[in-house]
Amino acid sequence: MADTTATPEETTSSGNEVKIKEVGPARKRLTITVPADAIDEKLEASLATLMTETALPGFRKGRAPKALMQKRFGSALKTETRNQIVADAYSAAIEENQLKPVGDPEPVTNIEELELKEGQALTFEVDIEVVPDFDMPKLDDIEIKKPKLEISDEMIDREIERQCLQIGQESKVDSDFQPSDRLVGSVKATRKGEDEPFFEHEEALIQVPGKDAKGRGQVLGLLIDGLDKILKGAKVGDTIPVTTTVPETHEREDIRGKEITIEFSIRQGVRVTPASVDEVVERYGMADENMLREQIKLALEQRRDYEQADAMRQQLYEELIKRVDFELPEKLSENQAARILQRYEMELLYRGLAPEEIEERLAESRAQSVEVARNRLKLFFLMSRLAEEKNIQVNEQEVNGRIAMIAAQRGERPEQLRNELTKSGRITEIAIQVRDHKTADKIIQEHAKVSDISADEWQKLRDKKLGTEGDSGSAATGSKKKTTKKKTTSKKKTKKKSTKKD
């Protein structure tokens, strides 16, 4: 752990005084003081701009008395000016001290309580997570297995079944829910020992675990063992309680490791009756089933190429993690945990998984160990440095190309997906994904010793590494899947209650 009592390093940035202090591994505290003369100058400039652009009743624009303008707009003017001063001072401190922050700064000082006063300096503090210093690993003697994956008739059959289900006919069911049925309703989650819920939503979705899910399913993004038994015998109008312990790596720090109860009130049940193969053929404008199978084979071959390249990258990631060691933040912050999940979600989108399966994989990811999450964070830092050393650049065309590819796999328009990613703040993760893939591919091409391996041999290696439960996503996890602990309480029927939307 870093010595948090060490004397801060003092620098001058753009006329501001900046003190930088280590407050933990890969974490620094910036104490920034903006001198009084800079405050006065900024206030005067802001007021001058306001006077030239604002017209008050009875005065021509720019002619209102200064005292009147200060009285009318002084408070708002100071707030806006303060925010600009803080933002500019922080940016200058980062740039001139050559810091490499990861994510947004975390204010130590309550910025909203800061007040600008003429003739007085302004001091504020922020904590930032930075890319840690470490020696780069050796890239020689990395052995990579290239799996030879063939497209079989069985794989084509499974994809046709998926397509039949995707365009199938929905119908409402009130009881006797079957695997893959979707249940819609309101949900509220409460921490143990508390009466008020910390989360409520009117439009929650639970899918009854499918035949291959071994009874596991996700509820509010948490993987629950035995969900099939919890839902057995339930019907529309019932409230289903599930008690579970939240993993220590969850993106919300306030519920990590806490026992919570989730109450799900079933409002509607939906069952999908698969369409026929002929209906799929007609839907996609094919001449016959043979043409459909040929097109699916081409799509699966393209996906096979993605998965083959991904399998090689995952091996590289695992080897890089083994070859370097450096201090990470003592615990994952909410921002770090959220970014790890976002990057994993982008990988799943890239691999062409259906939305329901993506949610399941994200729930599995939340349930993994702290070590797994920290390895993913370490990998992020590693790939950032390697991309810099290899001079890997990502342009807008490459980002748009990746979005178009993912959109095609999901059956969406590229602009629709781009808007969705932009609104949710995940567009940057697409660029990071492209950067990491280009970096990994370059390292494999220039440094790795690549040898072919049969599909059967590859499966044996995966089973040995991950156990017989299967792949939970990134091979860089280095561990088997784990699920959240759960307790089952008896089902009870209650009247539906209105809940406020979170």
Give an account of the 3D structure:
It is a single chain. With 502 residues, the chain is an alpha+beta fold. The protein has three domains: 9-129, Trigger factor ribosome-binding domain (Alpha-Beta Plaits); 143-151 and 290-466, Trigger factor, domain 2 (Orthogonal Bundle); 169-273 and 486-493, Chitinase A, domain 3, CATH 3.10.50.40. 43% of the residues lie in helices and 20% in strands. α7 packs antiparallel against α8, α7 crosses α12 and α9 (370-389) packs across α12 (427-447). The radius of gyration is 28 Å and the shape is globular.
Brief characterization of the structure:
This protein has helices at residues 36-53, 66-96, 153-166, 227-231, 277-283, 289-323, 334-350, 355-366, 370-389, 396-410, 414-423, 427-447, 455-466; strands at residues 9-13, 16-24, 27-34, 106-107, 122-129, 143-148, 169-173, 182-191, 199-207, 217-219, 222-224, 238-245, 259-273, 449-454, 486-488, 492-493. The protein is of the alpha+beta class. Strands 7, 8, 9, 12, 13, 15 and 16 form a 7-stranded antiparallel sheet that branches.
CATH topology of the largest domain: Trigger factor, domain 2
Identify the quaternary structure here: single chain
Distance between the termini: 37 Å
- Tally of individual helices: 13
The percent range for helix content is 40-55%
CATH architectural label of the largest domain: Orthogonal Bundle
CATH class of the largest domain: Mainly Alpha
Cα-based radius of gyration, to the nearest Å: 28 Å
Reading the helices and strands in chain order gives EEEHHEEEHEEEEEHEEHHHHHHHHEHEE
Mean pLDDT: 83
> What's the overall geometry?
globular
- Residues in β-strands, percent: 15-25%
Please identify the structural class as seen in this structure. Answer: alpha+beta
**Overall tally of structural domains:** 3
The largest β sheet comes out as:
7 strands, antiparallel
How many β-strand runs?
16
Low confidence ranges: 1-5, 468-502
